[in-house]
Every structure is written in structure tokens, then in C-alpha cells.
Design a protein that fits this description.
With 317 residues, the chain is an alpha/beta fold. It is built from 13 helices and 8 strands. It has a single domain, classed as Aldolase class I (TIM Barrel, Alpha-Beta Barrel), CATH 3.20.20.70.
Length: 317
């Protein structure tokens, strides 16, 4: 939780100005949340320089979890973050807990946002229902409505390559004017649009932060002025992501190129495993001794044993 003298919203948005892993969700053989492993993942991320964590996002298979499982995940992550905070110096930056909300209907989405906020999330990342592609105006109205009803600050989850719904850059001005919406996670590969989002956000004087979720264009995004990153690849390369952030801030072009090349090669290698990215990441983390199992929530399949060599090759890149 934030330091008593800090404004909770300011403390939460400050955590976005860094690198957060979009954590995978550890599962048991019967595909329930392995709650005993959650604290270890959170602690490992913070030890590797993360400014917070995202749970139950798309990498965490959030939309495939039951609502009660998302709550359980948030509660265990919250406990781990609070334990870390108690052990940290009094003036240390508070790590932020972001939780992913998703549902097939707007009514259920409102309920999920409320549950996750009540369970301890500092910010709720809102994924719009995606059965039907939404226009930019429809998507904008949805996020304004969710934020207006939520007592927890929200982030827009913009991932049009999966949902078919895209916002236009000018929507940022309207979103920034709504006090309940504090930022956007843009996971699109469209670097030009993301740069336009960042430009619009800069005009909001700190009221709205844009973070990227697209690792192959992380360098470009940081140089365009995004506040931070929430990436899947940070599950296995968190320190490299942090070093890239630092190199961009320092203007060290050679280091920037080296770290971005590493992230791109590992991301592309995992993409060639032939499974979903959550499955490939879990297999990588099991091989590294970080996870006990590599199970995914149905209908996602886990990496079969005969493809583990592809995962090993990706990690060597």
C-alpha cells in the first residue's frame, strides 16, 4: 500500500514510470491458481528491478480465469507486495499492483473491476468485451463509463490486434479529462500510433500515462516518450528490460541497441515454439526453475515435451 503521506493515485501512477512484468499465472495440475507460487513471482520481479506487477492480464490468462480466481490472485499478490513494502526503506517507491479485468458483458465488467479493486489492486487494467469489434467512439465511451463507476483508478487496455477495437489518438484528451482513467497500456505493434498517444498524454500534464506492452518496439516507445512498460517478456528478461529503460534515459545508444536486440530475439524465439505466449513463457520459467508446472488454462494448451528444446533455444538467444 502507499506510504501514509502519499496520495494513493499518485503513488500508483508513479509505479507505471518504470518496468512491470505482465506476470504469468502459475497453475496446479487441475488448472487452479497455484497461490503458493504467486509470492515468489512477485518477489523475484521486484528483486530484478520491477516497479510493480500486473496480474490477470492477457499473459496471465486473466480472461480464462474464473472471477474468484482473479480475486485470489490479486489478494496473494497484494500480500506479497505489502510484505516487500514493510521490509523496504521508508522513502522507497511503492511498487504498484495492477490487475486485469475482463468479462463478456459490460455489467459483468463493472463487477469485475469492483472486485479487483476491493481485493487490493492499486489500478485496474480494463479489457473491453471483444466479441464485436468496437469503433473508437464506442471503446472510448465504455472506458469512460467503467471509470466513472469505479472507486479504483483504471487503465485502458489497448490491444487491437486481438480485440479488433482501436482507439484514435485524439481519444486520449477525453480520457485524460476523466479523473478515474489514469493511463493506457498500448500493446499494439503500431509504433506511430503509440507515439501519437504519448504526444497527447504529454499535453495532459501528468494526469494520464501511456505505457507499452510491445517488447519488440520497446526502444522506439521509450524514445517516443511513453512512461514505462508492462511486458510479457519481463517474466524471463526483467533485468534486460530495466537495463533498456536505463540506457534510453542515459542516451547510451550502443547499450540500447544491445538490450533491444536481446529482447527481440528472445520474444521471436518464444513465438516460434508454436504455442501461445503464456504457454511458452511458463515452459521457459519451468526450465529455469522458477515455476513448478507449465500448465495453462483451457482451451490454451501447454508446451508439449517434444517442443521444450525450442524453448531452450529461445532462452539462449
Amino acid at each position: 500500500m502507499p506510504h501514509p503521506e502519499q496520495d494513493p493515485v499518485d503513488a500508483a501512477t508513479a509505479g507505471l514510470r518504470g518496468s512491470l512484468p505482465a506476470l504469468v499465472t502459475p497453475l496446479t495440475p487441475d488448472r487452479q491458481v497455484a497461490t503458493g507460487e504467486v509470492a515468489g513471482l512477485v518477489t523475484r520481479a521486484l528483486g530484478d528491478g520491477a516497479s510493480g506487477v500486473l496480474v490477470a492480464g492477457s499473459t496471465g490468462e486473466g480472461a480464462l480465469l474464473e472471477p474468484a480466481q482473479r480475486v485470489d490472485l490479486v489478494e496473494h499478490a497484494r500480500a506479497a507486495l505489502d510484505e516487500h513494502r514493510r521490509a523496504a526503506p521508508a522513502d522507497a517507491r511503492c511498487p504498484v499492483l495492477v490487475a486485469g479485468a475482463s468479462a463478456p458483458t459490460v455489467k459483468e465488467l463493472h463487477a469485475d473491476v469492483a472486485r479487483l479493486g476491493a481485493s487490493g489492486a492499486d489500478l485496474v487494467l480494463v479489457l473491453a468485451p471483444s466479441t464485436y469489434p468496437l469503433t473508437s467512439d464506442e471503446l472510448l465511451r465504455l472506458h469512460l463509463d467503467v471509470a466513472e463507476r469505479s472507486s479504483t483508478p483504471t487503465l485502458v487496455y489497448h490491444i487491437p490486434q486481438l480485440t479488433g477495437s482501436a482507439l484514435q489518438p485524439e481519444a486520449i484528451r477525453t480520457l485524460a479529462a476523466q479523473a478515474g482513467v489514469v493511463g493506457m497500456k498500448d500493446s499494439s505493434p503500431d509504433a506511430d500510433r503509440r507515439a501519437a498517444f504519448a504526444t497527447e498524454a504529454a499535453a495532459a500534464d501528468g494526469r494520464f500515462e501511456v505505457v507499452t506492452g510491445h517488447a519488440p518496439t520497446l526502444r522506439t516507445a521509450l524514445e517516443a516518450g511513453v512512461a514505462g512498460s508492462i511486458t510479457a517478456i519481463a517474466n524471463v528478461r526483467q533485468r534486460t528490460v530495466v537495463r533498456l529503460h536505463e540506457a534510453v534515459a542515459a542516451g547510451d545508444g550502443q547499450a540500447v541497441a544491445t538490450h533491444q536486440d536481446t529482447l527481440t530475439r528472445v520474444t521471436e524465439g518464444l513465438g516460434r515454439v508454436g504455442t501461445s505466449m503464456p504457454a511458452a513463457l511458463k515452459a521457459a520459467m519451468q526450465l529455469d526453475g522458477v515455476l513448478v508446472e507449465r500448465w495453462c488454462r483451457p482451451p490454451l494448451g501447454s508446451v508439449p515435451a517434444d517442443r521444450l528444446d525450442r524453448v531452450r533455444s529461445a532462452l539462449l538467444r
